[in-house]
Amino acid sequence: MSVRALNYQVVGNxxxxxxxxxxxxxxxxxxxxxxxxxxxFSLIMVELPGIGRSPMPELEQSYLDQxxxxxxxxxxxxxxxxxxxxxxxSGALVAKRYLQVYPACVNGAIF
Length: 111
Known about the structure:
This protein is α/β, with parallel strands linked by helices. 27% of the residues lie in helices and 23% in strands. It has helices spanning 34-37, 63-77, 91-101, and strands spanning 8-12, 16-20, 42-46, 83-87, 106-110.
């Protein structure tokens, strides 16, 4: 799989919290809860492959596998040892796959 950077934003202070949106929407879905979480977490809001400004996935490979690899590449790029994961709607499928492949990198998850 090729390495491509996902579009993301980081706001807030505290332990890292990866926020994975569902399909058909972007990380803008989190706008209403950011003020409540930002004092307690560093919110990493990502746009999944093929959504928003993130590159399209490769058609020959599993979407969930590609998304998991790209989330892991982002974790490494940001220098995060372990993070918590909050996922919404069909984004929970991506988060579940990420946890299956990289369980040692996650402190906790909410689907």
